[in-house]
Amino acid sequence: MAKERRSVESLSDLWRAGAEQAHREVEDDGVEQQRSKQAGRDDEMTIRFVLFVNKQGQTRLAQYYEHLSLDERRALEGEIVRKCLARTDQQCSFVEHRNYKVVYRRYASLFFLVGVDNDENELAILEFIHLLVETMDRHFGNVCELDIMFHLEKVHFMLEEMVMNGCIVETSKQNILAPIQLMEKTS
Amino acid sequence: MASTPAAPAVAPSLVDTLFQRSLNDLVKSLRADPSAAGEAVAVARALSEIHREIRAPDAATKSVALQKLTYLSSLHFAPVGTHLLAFPAIELLASPHLPHKRLAYLAASLSLHPASLSLLPLATHQLHKDLSPSSAGAAHQQHLSALALQLLASPAAAAAPDLPVHLAHDLVPHLARGSPRAIAAAARVIAASPSAAVPVLFKPLAACLASPDPRASTAAAAAFCDLSAPPADATPFLPLAPDLYNLLTTSRSNWALIKVLKVFARLAPLEPRLAARIVDPVCQLLTRSSAMSLTFECIRTVLTALPAHDAAVRLAIGKAKEFVAADDDPNLRYLGLLALGLLGPAYASTVNDCRDAIVKSLGDADTNIRQEALHLIMGMVNENNIMDIAGMLISHVAKSDPEFANDILGAVLAACGHNVYEMVVDFDWYVSLLADMARTLLCAQGDEIGRQLVDVGLRVRDARPELVRSARTLLIDPALLGNHFLFPVLSAAAWVSGEYVDLTKDPVELVEALLQPRTSLLPISVRAVYIHAVFKVITWCFSVYVGRLGDSGMAVDVMFDRLAADQTVGSESNVALVSGEEQDIGASTVRKDPFSHESILYMINLIQTTVGPLINCNEVEVQERALNLIGFVHLVREIQELNKRNVADGDKPSRLEELVKTMQTVFCQELGPVSVNAQMKVATPDGLILNENLVELAGIVSEDDTTPSTSIFFYPCSRHSADTRDELAVSIDSSSLSEHRKRHGLFYLQTGKTEDEPNDYPQANDSLPSSSNNSVNDDKLKTAELVFAGKKSTATKSRPKVVKLDTEDFLSSMMPSANVPKEDPLSGALRDVLLGSDAKALSSQRASDINLEGMLNKTSSNESSSQQIENLGSHPASRSSSRTSKQQNHDKEKGTNPPESDGKEPRKHRSSGRSGHRQGKHKHREKSSTQPDTIPQAPVIQDFLL
Description:
The complex is a heterodimer. By secondary structure, chain A is of the alpha+beta class. Chain A has helices spanning 2-27, 29-37, 39-42, 70-85, 122-141, 145-150, 152-162, 173-186; strands at residues 47-54, 59-64, 94-97, 100-107, 110-116, 163-164, 167-168. Chain A has eight helices and seven strands, in the order αααββαβββαααββα. Chain A has a five-stranded antiparallel β-sheet, sandwiched between helices. Chain B is an all-alpha fold. Chain B has a two-stranded antiparallel ribbon. At the A-B interface, helix 1, helix 2, helix 3, strand 2 and helix 4 of A face helix 2, helix 3, helix 4, helix 6 and helix 8 of B. Chain A: It is found in: Endomembrane system.
């Protein structure tokens, strides 16, 4: 009974949040316009998104470097994952999708997908994926899907260290892991 | 539980705080029930908890709630960027506890959303504080500022232009320190609000390029690579060239080198001296580097930005070839092909050198690689190698999976058909290639193949014999009739063999093929074409037969007696029985001479037995064609019977001759292509409201538009002009045009001037700037050569004439799905409205002449839609007035506005000619034969221009 009531409450809360948001969007029309004016600038980042997806197609991590709504994200992931999962090891690691080029690599049961601009260097992105996996491996010790699920925010921290504004800024494993270790020490 | 669903402002109870579930618990609960429903329940529960917990005054509870919410929203369980997530995140930014702060920054960078921008001012101060130096330890401070920079560089912050502007000054010390994050953040800030940020940040950022710290210089290179990316103008970054060059020659970081190369690839086209300067270092990198990513970047830079440096390009091509040949790595093969695709036409021969490797890639396991290889191969096609390449590709089709096989076929068709077959020199080869393509297994390109078969027939006179041969092989194969992809091809083949029946070697065999039992598998539209083709064949056979009897000096009477005698036997006794008998004879004797008495009889009987039952067909198209054909056959027999009864009547024999001649003239006009845009260039005449008519005609239009060859337009021009064609080819003179006009008296109205105005037409020709309407026309050839310089040699010499309309028209017709179908309903409707009643009137007029009356009336009464046309056209006066006004316009425009008059007439004929699926097509022809003034007199050439 209590459970049911709780879910009713949460739904109403959610609805209220949604309504609030819609309201705000109307208010912020001007800002929205400004943003859309800058939409062209969004195009210049090199990495558009990083996705970890397991073999079943479930998203394990999603980091976007451009703004997409929830529905857009879901649709994009669905399409890309379908495309990539269908490919075999003998096929190349690059898939063109809409205006992105998706560079992907499979480690055990996890697919690591990076969406990049068309003129990004595909091989460098493959190296980046490998570096990311190695970094996680060093931190978690023989990283697996569960590690990522239970320590998602740490993986996010690592990604943040490595990629800013869609650019790769840090490629030294030690430097990437230093802040996380610092944080673990302080907490 | 103390959870009251009352006011949302109520803070969570102590119980909630004490028994708060951690993120781990949440993940476990999500994993407990992996089904979608179970997950949804777990998410809903978690969200309701979070809603309460996140309002806790206690930072620990709040942070755990935020952590859970971040988790859920980052995996799309909860909507991104809700207000709910943004506010607590900003609250927690101020927490002195580092993990809380870290979490808050993560939540903020994930959640800040245009919708929550109003909250950003709240964060500005905190960011400012975190960015400024504080009393805390250096490492701690650096960490804090890193977090702040991270947020500043997130897409959310860039969406709020105020934030970066306020904080730009705070970035400067961090830039001076050479922090890669500050550099990335600065790039983002500059991109977000250039006017405010550039004066403050650009110089420190540029200084980072020269920084001794490789991390700083790498980050700076990446930042400038970002800022100079295509939508932006790269020119302002030219002054940075020395620093970048320095980096290019000294840096040992592949990441940095890749970015520097990208910037140079954008800068080099702007400054020629720069290209010369960087060639050497780039080539050195290209040869020395062991990193494939860097090698590939060098290749790409050289091929895109340094095309003038031959040695470098050759070096890059060599590397690219190595990539293509990398057997063990599909990534390298793909990138190698991609790199070769970057090469311009200047290096086509070098690409040609590695054709073997590319061809090998056509069989690759990876679709991307195959596509890229196909793309490359199509890129190297020219008129010299197209036969080799097309042949090779077609042989590859059999080995490929269905999808790729059709990609190949589509690519070959597009390449060969490009710009009116400009690359095809040997049309005999091309026609047989088309037939081969149609026969390949899995071919789903029937529409395009059929279209091109007819198109080549219309445009290339020299290709017709081979076309008829190929059509024959397609038609006689009963296996093809079961493949629905090939119906358009078969339709085209049937049309071709009917239209150019005079080139057929064995009409009897053709009739047999067109009437074979399996034709019942064909769709209605195609069957109708088949039956109509039979009509043409039999008409032609008759004319040859009659003509030959006349030649041989045999008296018409005698010939006729013989024929009549046989015919009466045939028609008076049981038809089926006789035809069976005749077929026996046919098998043995008919083949020897297709125009002998026996073979004619055999064909007539075959037609009666196979087409006869179709008179009762439910489909008007088929029924109508069948009726026409059977009616003709009956007429022939009827005359003979008459003759038999009154042998004394002297003019009966000539009736047969007359009939045959009439029918012969019906089909004697040659069809030519007409500009697709012709109709568009014609102004709508006064008094004609298109939409109004279209609404009424909606039903007819939809029914009408089932022609298989939608993009082919017919324009009749009389075949007897063919003899003089060559002379006409040289001089397109005004007299033929005036003749055209004379013949089109019906379409022309009296203007103030005389009807024959020789000067009008040449003007129209001359002032069509882009048109090369007739390659036969010398002038036009010249313009065509100007446009397609380089094709000159082959186009003028051995290549047969290809009737070509102006280029733009052709381009649009090359995109059949884009232009043509859209336009078709309109033209169909116009045709019906404008010509329906004319065809009607004329045909009946003619029918009274030659006794076809009964048959035609039957035909038209059977056809409901033609009745409809009649009804619509029941105001001949008003309609003719609209037409005449149109003609008036036309006449006026001719002098002043030639492009508009271009194609007007042809279009009209096209529409009349295209009425083939209705009875209009042959009626129109009948009409033109009996009414000389309506014949579009048509020395092939200038008609296309009109």
